[in-house]
Structure formats: C-alpha cells, structure tokens
Amino acid sequence: MPKPISLLFILVLCISGYYLLNRYHRTTYNLKRSSGYHTFLSSASAGLVVCAISVLVYAGFDWLLSKLEWHFSLGDIVLNTILMQDTNPSNIALFDISAITILLSVTIPVMLYKFDLTYQYYCFLEEFAQDGESPEYTQLFFRSYEYGLPILFTLSDNKVYIGYVTEIHARPFNDVYIIPIVSGYRESTTHKLKLVTPYKAIIEDVENDECNELDFEAFTVALPLREIVHAHLHDFEKYDDFRKAEANFDHTQEGTVTVNNQLLDFNVK
Description:
This protein is of the alpha+beta class. The N and C termini lie far apart (75 Å). Strands 1, 2, 3, 4, 5 and 6 form a six-stranded antiparallel β-sheet that branches. Helices cover 51% and strands 19% of the residues. A hairpin with a 2-residue loop joins strand 7 and strand 8.
C-alpha cells in the first residue's frame, strides 16, 4: 500500500502541473478541452518537469546552507515539530521538494509574463483568437474588435445584418448575438446588397431622448449559426468606394479589365 507521503507527492505533481498548464497561454485551451486520462497525464508530465527543476533548486539550496552552516527544512518543521511525527530524512526531503514544486508552478507563469497582468491577458486573448480549434468565426470576431469594424452577416434566406457581436464564446455555441447597425437583403439574382433598416439611427434617437434610458439588450439580434452563409468585416467608409469601382469595372477580354478607363492586366479566367 502506498505511503501517505507518496500519495501526497503524486497529488502535488498533478496539481502543480495542472496549475502551470492552465496559467500558460500556449497550453491552457488544449488542457481545457482534454478530459480523463489525457488531463491526468498532461498534468503529471508537466508536474514532473517542475519537480526536476525543484530537485536542482533543493540541492543547490541545501549545498548553500551547508556552506553557511545553517539548517532549514519546511518538512522538518511541519512533520516533526508541528505534527510531531518521527519522520525519516527521505520523507522530509520529499516534502521539501513538493513545497518547492508548488512554489515554482505558481511563480513560473508570473515570471514568464514579467509580472504584467495586462500582458498576460493579451497573450491569452491572442492565443484564443488564433487557436484553430476555437469556435467558428472566432478569428473574425476578434478582428472586428481589433479594427473597430462591424461584421456583415449574410443568412441563408439572403437577409443581411451588419453589426457588432456582443459575446465571444470559448465553447461551441448555436447563436451569434449582435447589436445591428443596419439590416437589409441581397437580391436573388445579382446578390447585390440592399440596405433597408437603419438601426443605428433609431438607437441614436433613443439615446438622445432623455425620457428613456437606452437598453442595448432591446436591440440585440440572435443569428442562428446554422443560417449564416457568409460573414466578413464591413467598412462603411469604404463601401461607397467599392460601389464606384464596381460601376467602372468592365471585362474587356481574357486577362485584362478596365477600371476608370484604364486597361489593367490580370490573369482572369
């Protein structure tokens, strides 16, 4: 039967490894998606690496204390002094190494992010945005946040909504919630965009009305993920420029197009 100190050591390995993986942006999302033995093995493996470093720290610290003719052992204090156990030196050393392992698992992530919580938050956010296993449209949502541009959603019934997402989910989801700026539809034959309802103007009117308190939740629109056919960033300032360019765009022959009466060479087939 395993000794209590051995079980404690295994528990320390798993806890310290899990904490370290959870606090590092490169491993946290894979860890959260894992389960069962995969989580246990990942945590134990990381804990063993930290434990190996702890052994080196313990040996160096013990050597330094011997040179200074000092003696300090947390294990001796806890096991023999406080708990009044007649513990052998090997178990005391194991207790000390376990304590160093826990301390390192807490301090290593802090040092990696240079004691800057803002930098740590940015690293986690960037990793989630670029993670290939993140939910659908996650990278697009973050680009909308980064550039300050709304997203144009085209639905299966040709309905179009342009707005800002209100939630970015870390787990699979069914609906995208947005605050719409404008809505419209695409023509059935040409699929050209036709804008109809100016939500932004209505929201601004409500916001300027002192008698009513603005509640953005009242304007939230839920778009079923299964109904979204296409989505991309939409820049209203550049929208008119694109429409003018489309009006002046004409195919003349294979490999060339005419834009604003200028003949340009393209490999268009």
